[in-house]
Amino acid sequence: MKTVTLIGKPGCHLCDDARAVVSEVCAQLGAHWEEKDITRDEELYRRYWEQIPVVLVDGAQHDFWRVDPRRLRAALEG
Question: CB under 8 Å, gap of 24 or more: what pairs does 43-51 form?
Answer without folding.
Answer: 44/7, 48/7
